[in-house]
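Next comes one such specimen:
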Amino acid sequence: MSGTPTAEVYRIDWLPGTDVLHGVCHCGAERTAEDPVELWQWMLAHPNGHHPAGPSEHQPTGHRKEPRS
């Protein structure tokens, strides 16, 4: 590995039991989506569209919840 490491950390997690991905930008902004490309485009477009999400923002549609055992 070459170059200088940066402090920018991007993270995408899968929400178990759903088709939803949860992305966290290095700035702390969060977003959920079913499409990983959409999340990466959003993160790499920083700072465009980055602000704290309210409870009704970025709610994906079409995801399924599996019943807990």
Notes: The two ends are 45 Å apart (CA to CA). Residues 55-65 have pLDDT under 50 and may be disordered. The CA atoms of residues 20 and 34 lie 5 Å apart.
